[in-house]
Design brief:
The structure is a single chain. This protein has 392 residues and is α/β, with parallel strands linked by helices. It folds into 2 domains: 55-146, no CATH class; 154-389, Rossmann fold, CATH 3.40.50.1820. 36% of the residues lie in helices and 16% in strands. The chain has 10 helices and 12 strands. It has helices at residues 48-51, 55-85, 89-110, 120-146, 154-160, 229-237, 258-265, 279-288, 330-336, 373-389, and strands spanning 36-38, 45-47, 172-173, 183-187, 193-198, 201-206, 213-218, 242-245, 271-277, 295-301, 316-322, 345-349. Helix 8 (279-288) links the parallel strand 9 and strand 10 (295-301). The longest helix is centred in the first third of the chain and has 31 residues, at 55-85.
Length: 392
């Protein structure tokens, strides 16, 4: 049979021809469309836009850090004089939190996250960590806001600086004793008082001691310790050494043992009364329960003990309270009788509220007063002076 033999078609190579490189992935302008970034270790190409977190997520991630800066700045801006006058623990903590927030903001701004390679499980672990961190941050910031102290009033500041004040605090300014840092003198010629500041206490030192007893006083929670000086200076003018404890974070229970340091530093005082306002009174009663032989008296301002002191026949106790107090109510004072010695002197100041035991303005949640602050404080000072005079 004659003719041209059939020629089989060429065999398939098994590969598709690659598109021409010059036209691949380009638009009409010749620019590449959606260039790819290789994912580390995956061998796959990931769009460049997915390599960086979206700006909205980056903003959300930086909010807790920004709050760590904003809250300390706000506290410092609104309570700077009180922070300077108080124990250094709170302002130092504010500084540390602000620094940590600043560093976190810088780190977030510089970070370029790659896509998660470990899959769904790693993503959930990461989000759980972020949620836990946010909750801890929120708790810390809430505590810092809550700890912002009630500031001392103008009269208290005047007494703290050794200047004459109005109301309960009266006197004339003078010259601080030589060698006393941050001190001033206040009072009349017959009862001049040196006001001496240190990081952990404020001392009111009478120029002419006329009694054997002194007072260590614990402030109420979150109250500028200077707020009690207008009521305590009249005691110093009577010749009694008075020391006001500066507790960490203005929380007296964190410095219960501070009275021992005062007693050790002043061996010239033979008998001591330890007292306090509100939570400060609780701290004072806890110290007294330790049976320090140098302590002969307990002075409670709108406060009560948590330990049973009813068997302490060696202890002279005075409890001063207001019948309009919204925090330490008359019912609380009546309930405290069974925890105190039978000979305890109870003094009720008619019309007085919780905030009248210091010079720091009104306190949210307190009762409605039925007397003036000045009238109430005169009675508080008189009852406190009697407590000190009872020890000599």
């Amino acid at each position: 049979m004659t003719g041209t033999p059939d020629v089989p078609p060429p065999a398939a190579s098994g590969r598709r021809s690659a598109p021409h490189a010059s036209g691949a992935g380009k638009d009409s302008s010749g620019l590449e469309k959606n260039p790819a970034v290789p994912a580390r270790g995956s061998g796959r190409a990931v769009p460049r836009a997915a390599a960086d977190p979206p700006s909205r997520l980056r903003l959300i991630a930086v909010l807790p850090s920004a709050a760590c800066v904003a809250v300390p700045v706000w506290v410092v801006a609104t309570r700077w004089p009180s922070l300077v006058a108080a124990h250094p623990a709170y302002p130092v903590t504010l500084g540390v939190v602000a620094l940590a927030g600043t560093l976190a903001i810088v780190r977030t701004a510089r970070r370029r996250r790659a896509p998660t390679r470990a899959g769904h499980r790693t993503g959930w672990i990461a989000w759980t960590g972020r949620v836990a961190g946010a909750l801890v941050t929120a708790a810390v910031l809430f505590a810092l806001v809550w700890l912002r102290p009630f500031p001392a009033g103008e009269t208290a500041v005047a007494v703290s600086e050794g200047r004459s004040g109005s109301g309960t605090a009266s006197g004339t300014a003078g010259t601080p004793p030589e060698g006393s840092s941050g001190s001033g003198t206040a009072g009349t010629a017959a009862g001049a008082v040196a006001v001496v500041h240190s990081p952990t206490r404020i001392e009111l030192r009478p120029s002419v001691p006329r009694g054997r007893s002194g007072l260590v006083f614990y402030p109420g929670a979150r109250v500028d310790p200077r707020a009690y000086l207008p009521l305590l200076r009249p005691l110093a003018e009577r010749g009694h050494l008075v020391a006001v404890v500066k507790a960490p974070f203005d929380f007296a229970l964190l410095a219960t043992g501070a009275a021992a340091d005062v007693l050790d530093d002043h061996p010239e005082v033979s008998r001591w009364v330890v007292g306090g306002h509100s939570l400060g009174g609780v701290a004072a009663s806890q110290y007294v329960s330790g049976h320090d032989g140098r302590v002969g008296g307990l002075l409670l301002w709108a406060s009560y003990p948590v330990d049973d002191l009813s068997g302490r026949t060696d202890l002279s106790v005075s409890s001063v309270s207001g019948d309009r107090d919204g925090f330490t109510t008359p019912e609380d004072i009546r309930a405290s009788r069974e925890l105190l010695p039978a000979a305890t002197r109870f003094v009720t100041v008619p019309g007085a509220v919780h905030a009248f035991f210091g010079d720091y303005g009104p306190q949210p949640g307190d009762g409605e007063p039925a007397t003036t602050r000045a009238a109430a404080q005169r009675e508080i000072v008189a009852a406190s002076a009697a407590a000190l005079a009872a020890l000599g």
